[in-house]
Design brief:
619 residues, 2,3-Dihydroxybiphenyl 1,2-Dioxygenase, domain 1, 3 domains
Length: 619
């Protein structure tokens, strides 16, 4: 199948949209009528611009409120069509998208609609163009693709075909099997769009919340399977109405769209089969970029969490700290990637290493899905670890245990024998990243396609300065869990992190333990200062969960937060924020599957009290 995107899916000027589509690797575009009307050149100029960029025009769209109209509106509809067909000839558009009528003046009847489409097809043939008919989910009389197909079938004209649209099929819940019986040569082209599961009017959902396949919750896989059964091999085009998309860079959105097409079809740009995703097996390491002056403070903080200095890089100013299966790296180099990241973002997480079953295959998949690969000179005694750029430009490294990559610590680091009492922290439970509000769907797609992560439902977290949208991407066994947070409110902690430190990135890291109380006691003995939690929180906690007095007393004494769900209990304790950039969390799960969302407002308020920033702007 060939990939296309409708210009309505992108923000910017028409030229910016077309350049973004071409740059992302799309082969075609649907030209939205409003883009022609707002452009300061002729339709012929637009056509030349499209072709000069190596694109094809798939369709001109939309042509509204046509079929089933009474006179004199019917006659005016045909006159409108002739003028649009003439414009299409000048533009060089081969087909027009005719969407089912939403006018209250429209008359019902499949035969009436078929007769109108047949006559329209005859006129279109005279202009050398085709008509594609699409059922809108909110059409007055025709809203089901099965009815649209019956209209096209009865029209029985070679210049009239059906347009199938995944949103208008899946959002209303229409069955997919009937698609399989539609002849491929009667399908004009196919539009694909996903959407979240929200209890909302279909028109409003469509106009504001459509998204690329892989970003929502519709059964795109089932739709594509039914389409594949027809033998269709033509244009597959994104038509997305989304407020966030128009706020974001058209180049970024176009790249997300092409990534979605590749993942959805399982074919790379060159036609190769997309490599299957090796299963992520957990976090191999987290690398911090800090200055030489800041490194001792970070070292004291993680030492208080029970980490010990396990090794020093053989050739660089890079320290390795370890506890359980958790590896932290403190990089104070004054050149190289980590230093560049520090110059831009300040103290920050510059890289995350992931264990995968096959690093080479994972890298091939990432590059096929348009991830930006990263390479830098490798010195003597260093390993070349495959890497791509992730959120905020930070790196994601891929390691496997099959070869030298599995021995990275012994190969690159000299042991220093820094043993001591740990706090029994075992693994990285989850990593939270703050991203720009308009980029949240794109990073969701990145993780779902490149790493094949599943997702949890989005939740709204109440920050003292506004709402924060939060969702978690994860492996099936939860060995890797990444929380994405975004907010439109400028003064939320998530927004301040992005705006004041020049971009998205890791804002907090949670470590798991089997005994939160023993871990908290050991950490306090090592100098750990927890985030102070107000007494009012614990008074409410006792009322909500009917806690044993002894348990409540232990929670209060150690500033531990608590939650529970139908699966079990959850305990959390937070560090204070390091350099106003990032912080750590220690969690204990007793069957619990969430992330303590009810406690997030308490944590955010406590952090706001200690922050050098006010929670809300002063007037």
């Amino acid at each position: 199948m060939r990939s296309s995107i409708a210009t309505v899916s992108l923000g910017g000027t028409l030229r910016e949209k077309l350049e973004a589509a071409a740059g992302a690797g799309f082969e075609g575009v649907e030209i939205f009528e409003a883009d022609i009307l707002a452009h300061d050149g002729s339709p012929a100029d637009v056509g030349r611009m499209v072709r000069d960029l190596g694109l094809e025009i798939v369709a001109f769209q939309p042509f509204r409120d046509f079929e089933g109209m009474p006179e004199p509106r019917r006659a005016r509809g045909f006159e409108r069509a002739r003028r649009k067909f003439a414009l299409m000839n000048e533009l060089g558009a081969p087909r027009v998208l005719v969407c089912s009528n939403v006018s209250p003046h429209a008359l019902g009847g499949i035969d009436r609609a078929a007769a109108d489409l047949r006559e329209l097809g005859q006129i279109a043939a005279g202009f050398g163009v085709e008509v594609g008919f699409e059922a809108l989910a909110w059409g007055v009389h025709i809203r089901d693709y099965r009815d649209a197909w019956e209209v096209v079938r009865r029209a029985d004209h070679p210049s009239v075909g059906i347009i199938l649209d995944s949103y208008h099929t899946l959002a209303p819940g229409y069955p997919l099997d009937p698609i399989r019986s539609i002849p491929a040569d009667r399908i004009s082209f196919v539009q694909v769009a996903d959407a979240p599961k929200i209890d909302m009017d279909l028109l409003q959902l469509s106009r504001h919340f459509r998204c690329f396949p892989g970003q929502g919750d519709l059964d795109i896989t089932g739709f594509m399977a039914a389409l594949g059964a027809t033998g269709y091999d033509g244009w597959l085009s994104h038509e997305i109405f989304n407020d966030r998309f128009r706020m974001a860079s058209p180049r970024q959105i176009a790249r997300d769209g092409e990534r979605s097409i590749i993942a959805m079809t399982g074919r790379t740009r060159g036609g190769r089969v997309l490599p299957a995703a090796p299963s992520p097996e957990g976090v191999a390491f987290i690398e911090f970029a800090v200055s030489e002056a800041e490194a001792p403070d970070l070292a004291r903080l993680i030492a208080a969490l029970g980490f010990h200095h396990a090794g020093q890089h053989r050739a660089k100013d890079v320290a390795w700290w370890r506890q359980g299966d958790i590896n932290l790296v403190i990089n104070t180099e004054t050149d190289g990637f980590a230093h560049s990241h520090y110059i831009t973002h300040g103290p920050s997480v510059a890289a995350i290493g992931l264990w995968v079953s096959d690093a080479g295959v994972q890298m091939d998949r990432a590059e096929a899905l348009l991830a930006q690969s990263f390479r830098q000179p490798v010195g003597p005694g260093e390993l070349e670890i495959p890497a791509i750029r992730g959120v905020g430009g930070a790196l994601i490294y891929f390691l496997d245990r099959k070869g030298p990559l599995g021995r990275v610590w012994e190969v690159e680091f000299e042991p220093v024998g820094g043993e001591g009492d740990d706090a029994d922290l075992t693994v990285v439970d989850h990593i939270a990243q703050s991203v720009f509000f308009e980029e949240l769907p794109g990073w969701r797609l990145f993780y779902r396609t490149v790493l094949s992560l599943g997702k949890t439902p989005q939740v709204d977290v109440v920050d003292p300065a506004g709402l924060v949208e939060s969702e978690v991407l994860h492996t099936a066994d939860r060995a890797l869990q990444i929380a994405l947070n975004a907010s439109q409110a400028r003064q939320t902690q998530s927004s301040r992190f992005i705006n004041e430190f020049f971009g998205a990135g890791v804002q907090h890291i949670a470590f798991a333990t089997g005994d939160i109380f023993e871990a908290a006691r050991r950490m306090r003995a090592a100098g750990f200062e927890p985030l102070p939690i107000p007494e009012n929180y614990y008074d409410d906690l006792e009322a909500r969960f009917d806690l044993e007095p002894t348990l409540s007393a232990k929670l209060r004494a150690l500033d531990i937060l608590y939650d529970e769900d139908e699966h079990g209990a959850y305990y959390q304790v937070y560090t204070r924020v390091f350099a106003d950039r990032f912080f750590f969390e220690v969690v204990c799960r007793e069957g619990y599957r969430g992330f303590g969302a009810p406690n997030a407002p308490i944590r955010l308020a406590a952090q706001a009290r200690l922050s050098r920033h006010p929670a809300v702007p002063r007037r």
